[in-house]
Write a structure and sequence with these properties.
- The structure is a single chain.
- The C terminus is likely disordered.
- The chain has one domain.
- It is built from 16 helices and no strands.
- The radius of gyration is 20 Å and the shape is globular.
- It is an all-alpha fold and 338 residues long.
């Protein structure tokens, strides 16, 4: 039963994606895929690898700012290993934070804060970079307003104690989170600290480079399908698809990401069959590439750094994190303070 609950969101996303392809007609999608420039697809894969490697580099600087002592290559490999889970289960992005806790003994709230800050930074930069193009499409201003407003609201919760307190009480009523309220407190506290650290702020330029890589990878896919729409359209498509996937709360945004991508491309005059083919290739980049390199990274480091299972459930992630934090809270707190 537990396995079914964990897989249910993924199944919903896959069903939505399958339904989308059936509506467009598989024959049209296959016809669009015929003649795809595989060289350009391969180049897009390499940009995707660089995207996740840079994510690990940026995360390393955030970990350092939070007092988490890992070597650069360890941070990058742990980040890659976590991507395997992010693509297939809810709360999967917490796994890399848990791995960092298991490897160093630093409280889970502190490592989770680095993931929170990185996600806020990347999403903000992605939407801001795409805003000029968003203004040129119907409802684009609303997308920008919703996303940036949501980020502002998140920052408000993190920074203003009076806003956070009622949310904390609400978390105490949720069975999955009840035992981890103290870790949420640590996450909030460490997030605020990170948002004031020069190293954490300055390294945000790396997330801007990731925005450029994500748009570049999609543009290569478009060119591989003989679709010439330009870099800024590719950036716009990435932003809308990323936001659509994030708002769906489905693992890896599967289904919602593709629907958003297809909708924007069709709006720019791309035939539905071609748009769906691009969406499938993009899913290959979002799930296939990080899954493969993530498993390889995990195999390379899990024994040496004493990492737990790649397939831990969200409840296990939170419970294990609380246990890890409680057994090492004193020395870890001293390290963070240092």
């Amino acid at each position: 039963m537990n396995l079914r609950r964990r897989l249910f969101p993924l199944i919903v996303g896959l069903a939505g994606l399958a339904g989308l392809l059936l509506v467009i007609q598989p024959s049209r999608v296959l016809a669009a895929l015929h003649g795809t420039d595989l060289g350009l697809v391969g180049a897009a894969m390499l940009l995707t690898v660089a995207f996740y490697a840079l994510q690990g580099v940026r995360w390393h600087f955030l970990l350092r700012a939070a007092g988490v002592r890992l070597h650069l290559h360890e941070s990058v490999l742990i980040n890659l290993a976590g991507q395997t889970v992010t693509a297939v289960i809810p709360l999967g992005d917490l796994t890399r934070a848990l791995f960092a806790t298991q490897a160093t003994g630093v409280p889970f709230g502190a490592t989770a804060a680095t993931v929170t800050v990185q996600d806020l930074t990347f999403t903000s930069l992605l939407v801001l970079a795409a805003t000029p193009a968003l203004m040129g499409i119907p409802g684009g201003w609303l997308v920008s307003a919703i996303v940036l407003g949501g980020i502002a609201a998140t920052l408000l919760v993190l920074v203003v104690p009076g806003v956070y307190r009622p949310i904390r009480r609400l978390l105490g009523t949720v069975p999955l989170l009840r035992e981890s309220v103290e870790q949420v407190d640590t996450l909030r506290r460490e997030s605020v600290v990170l948002l004031t650290r020069p190293l954490a702020l300055a390294s945000g330029i790396i997330d801007l480079a990731r925005v450029a890589l994500a748009a570049g990878a999609l543009e290569l896919l478009l060119r591989a399908m003989n679709i010439e729409r330009g870099y800024w359209v590719a950036l716009l498509v990435v932003a809308v698809a990323y936001v659509g996937g994030a708002l769906s709360f489905l693992p890896g945004g599967i289904g919602a990401n593709e629907a958003s991508l297809i909708g924007v491309l069709v709006g720019f005059g791309v035939p539905a069959g071609q748009a769906a083919a691009v969406a499938l290739l993009e899913r290959l980049l979002l799930t296939g590439v990080p899954s493969v390199i993530g498993v390889l990274a995990y195999v390379a480091i899990h024994r040496r750094l004493h990492l737990g299972s790649l397939v831990a459930s969200p409840r296990t992630v939170l419970t294990s994190a609380s246990t890890s934090a409680s057994t090492s809270a004193a020395p870890a707190t001293c390290e963070v303070a240092a």
